[in-house]
Design goal:
734 residues; alpha/beta; TIM Barrel; Rossmann fold; Immunoglobulin-like; 3 domains; Cellulose_Degrad_GH3; glycosidase
């Protein structure tokens, strides 16, 4: 179906479409009801009913939303489903549902809806689409090419389902290591987050799918690590740590953005004029449309206690933010509230038209008026070998070898093995939350046969005979029976190597708030029990955030930080442990060793060695023991750095640049990849150092190469402007 417009009446500029002007022509003809409808987004669950163990679209409910002139739908009907008769819609079922919705809305209103979904590590909710490692793993690659692949296939497979809008990438800069959304970030460094985010946005939008930066801004700045708690940030932190990733994607042309759940410096972001208008629209010059997060506007009443009722919440959002669309999400109440506010003169028609125009502009950019059900040509590509290979290579590149005592790895498959632990035979735990369902799934039955569990992949290498024993021994919460320990110890004692895979249960968002910072005691006790045997322990950490290990890393001969590599992760882990793949990942965050709040909440740039340093308050360094530092990662070879050269040793704000060259050599016996990281320390800044440049090189044994980075005064500068006055960086000479 196409929406027929008189294209000859739509403006063009020197042969290039002027989408703003085109959108204005359309919006100028809309009634207030139509304009407010464009600003309203509703969960698809509103129009779904269960029939014969299937979820189907209810035409009468779609008609109701079409009569309300709703402009957008979101989500999967299976996102929070507890039914076990299906793990979701395949691409054909999605297209059928989207077609029914679009047809009714276009017939009734003349305008297509824009559909949004959380395709955060692949097309999350499209059955049989290949799922990639989470963003935290992509950050560990220190290679934006893998971020591009993630965006490319997420965009392709989402579009194949007829969906036009992805809620991603996540651009939070990780801080407190207990925050439940660490897995959704690219790590704790703003440069890495910016580079990876830019790559994802560009690749998603290359598929004619809109990307959406989230969650604007400061969401990850929690001091306690609890999701959605109020955040307090200095202007320096806001502009120099949390803003750069958003600036990077806005400069790259991101079409949409999403607000956040938090109150920042006492004001909910959905009514925060300083961040939503002064910073976002004036300083960053974002001209796309901004959507709220789930029920975020109404949360000003029942969560933040900032508004007296829903009407007051909507009024505050419209008066003090640049939000364009409300993710309501469960009804059309936003429309009636907005109509009342407009009729009473509390929200102007200009404010409403501005938002509707931004939304319609994106619909035009996506060509939805001509092709509201895109992606028919991509249907047969979903789940193809190319995307499987890309996910596998990403998983391999993301694994971080953090300990390898006496080069115990790689393993010899001719030896005997005991495979154990809750994550050793569970693809769901390799994927975590935002996988098939919002909170993820446990087990393997919901996944197509693209990958294997860790024990299945490793057993296939060893050979399924008496040299490969498997016994889970303990569940993901740490529960086991008394005899489980005895059985596991007996099997471990008879094996040369015991591979223990453990970590976190699956969760998403605030449902991860209940977990302690330490791994469950039952899990650490299990490792300690097996460590009393004669076996060598190989520990594989499968977790979305760095849970405190309570000393078990010291008991292992080797430790592999796997993060959440998802369904191809079992193959990738096996490949690294047996040496088919030389590990090249590096930690994209600091892995703390103790539970003190300062230690958990301090990123690498607030540390000197194992000490936390609060330069803003001038306090003395405080001991903050870490398991492993940011950027740590071992290889099966070794690399040397030598002959560092600078083209200029002094930079002034007016000087152009300097180059830094270092010779990197592979000193070992196998080919390996090394991420070369360049940190700078700027005079007068609170950060001890900041990563500014990085690249990855591959070297054969004995090979050396010169790596050159170019630095400008901008790399040493910091934003010092008053918010709303235009961005201004000060680069102190040094």
């Amino acid at each position: 179906m196409k929406v027929v417009l008189a294209l000859a009446t739509l403006p063009y500029v020197t042969g290039v479409r002027d989408f703003n002007a085109e959108a204005k022509v359309i919006v100028d003809k809309m009634s207030i009801d139509e304009l407010i409808g464009q600003m309203t987004q509703v969960n698809i669950a509103y129009v779904i009913e269960d029939q014969n163990e299937k979820k189907v679209v209810d035409p009468s409910k779609v008609a109701d939303l079409a009569n309300h002139r709703i402009g957008s739908y979101l989500n999967s009907p299976f996102a929070t489903s507890t039914s076990d008769y299906s793990s979701g819609w395949n691409v054909t079922e999605w297209r059928s549902a989207i077609s029914q919705i679009q047809t009714k809305h276009i017939t009734e209103t003349g305008h297509p809806i824009i559909y949004g979904v959380d395709s955060v590590h692949g097309a999350t909710y499209v059955q049989n689409a290949v799922l990639f490692p989470h963003q935290i793993n992509v950050g560990a690659t220190f290679d934006p090419a893998f971020a591009s692949q993630l965006g490319e296939f997420a965009g392709r497979d989402t579009r194949a389902a007829g969906i036009h809008w992805i809620f991603g990438p996540t651009l939070e800069v990780a801080r407190h290591k207990g925050w439940p959304r660490i897995m959704e970030t690219f790590g704790e460094d703003p440069t890495v987050v910016a580079d990876m985010g830019r790559a994802v946005v560009q690749s998603i939008q290359s598929k004619n799918v809109a990307a959406c930066f989230k969650h604007y801004i400061g969401y990850s700045g929690s001091e306690s690590g609890k999701d959605r708690e109020p955040v307090n940030l200095t202007k320096h932190e806001l502009l120099n740590i949390f803003m750069p990733p958003f600036k990077a994607v806005i400069d790259a042309g991101v079409m949409t953005g999403m607000d956040s759940f938090i109150a920042l410096n006492g004001v909910p972001t959905s009514a925060n004029r300083q961040t939503s208008i002064d910073l976002l629209r004036t300083d960053l010059k974002f001209d796309g449309f901004l959507v709220s997060d789930w029920e975020e506007i109404y949360m000003m009443q029942h969560f933040h206690q900032y508004a007296t009722n829903r009407d007051d919440a909507v009024f505050k959002a419209m008066s003090n933010s640049s939000l364009d669309m409300s993710m309501v999400p469960n009804d059309a109440s936003f429309i009636e509230i907005m109509k009342g506010l407009h009729n009473s003169g509390n929200v102007s028609e200009d404010r409403i038209r501005t938002s509707a125009q931004r939304i319609v502009k994106v619909k035009l950019q996506l060509n939805l008026y001509d092709d509201p059900e895109p992606g028919a040509d991509l249907v047969n590509l979903v789940g193809d070998k190319i995307s499987q290979d890309a996910a596998l290579e990403t998983a391999k590149a993301s694994l971080v070898l953090v300990k390898n005592t006496n080069d115990v790895l790689p393993l010899d498959p001719a030896k005997s093995f005991f495979f154990t632990g809750p994550s050793i035979d569970d693809i769901g735990l390799l994927c975590g939350g935002w996988t098939i369902r919002w909170q993820g799934v446990q087990g393997t039955s919901n996944f197509p046969a693209y990958g294997r569990t860790i024990q299945a992949a490793m057993s296939a290498v060893v050979g399924n005979d008496t040299r490969a024993e498997f016994y889970q021994g303990v569940d993901i919460t740490g529960n086991s029976q008394s005899w489980d320990i005895d059985v596991a110890k007996e099997k471990a004692d008879s094996a040369d190597y015991t591979v223990i895979a453990l970590g976190e249960r699956s969760y998403a968002e605030l449902l991860g708030n209940t977990d302690p910072y330490e791994l469950p005691k039952g899990l650490t006790d299990y490792v300690k029990a097996l460590a009393t045997t004669s076996t060598k322990i190989i520990l594989v950490l499968v977790e979305g955030r760095p849970r405190l290990l309570s000393g078990i890393a010291d008991l292992a001969a080797a430790v592999l930080y796997a993060g959440l590599p998802c369904e191809l992760g079992g193959e990738a882990i096996s490949s690294v442990l047996f040496g088919s793949t030389n590990p090249s990942g590096k930690l994209p965050l600091t892995y703390p060793k103790s539970a003190e709040q300062l230690n958990l909440a301090t990123p690498y740039y607030g540390r000197i060695g194992d000490d936390c340093v609060d330069k803003l308050s001038g306090g003395d360094p405080i001991s903050c023991p870490v398991e492993w530092h940011f950027g740590h990662g071992l290889s099966y070879t070794s690399f040397s750095y030598s002959d560092v050269q600078l083209s200029a040793t002094n930079l002034t704000p007016s000087s152009s640049q300097t180059t830094v060259t270092v010779t990197v050599k592979n000193e070992g016996k196998v080919t390996g990849k090394e991420s070369v990281l360049l940190f700078v320390s700027a005079p007068g800044g609170p950060e001890t150092r900041l990563l500014k440049k990085y690249t990855k090189v591959e070297l054969t044994p004995g090979q050396a190469t010169d790596v050159t980075f170019t630095l400008s005064p901008d790399d040493f500068g910091k934003y010092v402007n008053e918010i709303g006055s235009g961005l201004l960086k000060d680069a102190t000479a040094g």
